[in-house]
Amino acid sequence: MSSLFMFEKPLGMRDSLPEIYETKYIVKQKMDKEIKQWGYQFIETPTLEYYDTVGAASAILDQQLFKLLDQQGHTLVLRPDMTAPIARVAASKLLNEDLPLRLAYNASVFRAQQREGGRPAEFEQIGVEYIGDKTVSADGEGIALMISSLEKAGVQKYQLSVGHIGFVQAFFEQILGTKERADALTKYLYEKNYVGYRQHVDNLSLSSIDKQRLHDFLKLRGGEEIIPLAYKLIENGSGTQAIDDLQQLWDILLDYGVENQVRFDLTLVSHMSYYTGILYEAYAEGVGFPIGSGGRYDLLLAKFGKNTGATGFAIRIDHLLEALGSLVRKSDIHCILFSGDRRKEAFELAKQKRADGFKVITQDINGVGNVDACTKQYDEITLLVGKAGMEVVK
To answer: Which residues contact 123 (CB under 8 A, 6 or more apart)?
Structure first.
């Protein structure tokens, strides 16, 4: 093994420099406020969880888990997502009343990378979990809240794609006969490899009618007009409940007034294996990855001993910043440069300005190598040097 360079970081880990940190802070504050205004309560869970509980319940692949042993020999994991930990908390401590829970979080998750490839091993998410409600109304609320949160963060050109994993599973198994064959075809959808999908379908031992149905499936993208097309592809009633859900969802989104930000894409699938129904992803102009995703996961709580419905979403902060484009300026700081004989005066002036809500630093002028560079870095410079009065440079 080669020796590490002095400034080298673990694979996939990143530093957040001041401008990035400040931008993240402002954006998260805006979304925090919006989520709270929808009645969601924020909680925190441990960074470390047991592998046999949260690690096993998570939909993240085992090779992507950061594992370590505690002193008792138990295998621990750095939390790979937030849905499984919140499901653990809800099932063990919060689901005592017959009422839905609206929970939210703002936290980092950890997923090991096999090679650099620009993908982070640690990234921040802000999201919600709506637990204890199996109705489509809960799905509609999640989509509307994600849209509202993105707009509060400042994202302007974006779109949500909405699908239903139950429809995909029922439709594929109806034609292909087994879950294994359906999963093999679904993999092409996850990879968005539609050329490979078509080639795979053409090579299947199926009737020409069934092959055409599988090809027509790729056309199920658009607005409400795709609903009757989806009904036509289904036979013997299997999968129609999923389409009914999508029709009801569309009516709910109309009432929220967010239909212009949403389109159906029934080819949408997710690497999160616990999704059971409606799922969605948010895309922004100029960003190659979803900036957020969510969906229904009605079976996850059962792994922690509670049989109830749940839905939620997560917004990726790093992808969100890419969508926003510009960073906030770091220089909204007032700098007071002082000489030793006016130090107390500088400290009192800084105290007064901080009380008035300004960001202020005090700097001994002898500790500044380049005063001109200092004036370029800060919004306002006040000189308290020698016996002269206060001089505001800019």
So the answer is: 108, 109, 316, 317, 318
Question: Which pLDDT tens digit goes with each residue over 248-292?
Answer: 999 999 999 999 999 999 999 987 778 899 999 999 998 989 999
* Rounded average pLDDT over 309-325: 94
- 263 labelled binding-site residue: no
Residue 356 sits in a domain whose CATH number is 3.40.50.12590
- For residue 233, give the CATH number of its domain: 3.30.930.10
Query: Is 275 assigned a ligand-binding role in the annotation?
Result: yes
Q: Is 129 annotated as a binding residue?
A: yes
> What tens digit of pLDDT does each residue of 292-301 get?
999 999 989 8
Q: Has residue 6 been placed in a domain?
A: no
Contacting residues for 9 by C-beta, under 8 A, at least 6 apart: 15
Q: pLDDT tens digit string along 77-125?
A: 899 999 999 999 998 877 776 679 999 999 999 988 766 556 788 889 9
Q: Are residues 165 and 314 in the same domain?
A: yes
Q: Are residues 203 and 286 in the same domain?
A: yes
Query: How sure is the predictor about 329, in pLDDT bands with cuts at 50, 70 and 90?
Result: low
Q: Is 45 annotated as a binding residue?
A: no
Residue with tokens 């005063």: 371
Claim to verify: residue 338 and residue 299 sit in the same structural domain = no
User: Domain range holding 279?
Assistant: 18-324
User: In DSSP terms, which residues pair with 237 in a beta bridge?
Assistant: none
Question: Do 369 and 273 fall within a single domain?
Answer: no
Q: Is 240 annotated as a binding residue?
A: no
15 is in an annotated binding site: no
Do 252 and 371 lie in one domain? The reply is no
Q: From 386, 87, 151, select the one nearest 282 (Cα to Cα).
A: 151
Q: Which amino acid is at 47?
A: T
- pLDDT at site 284: 95
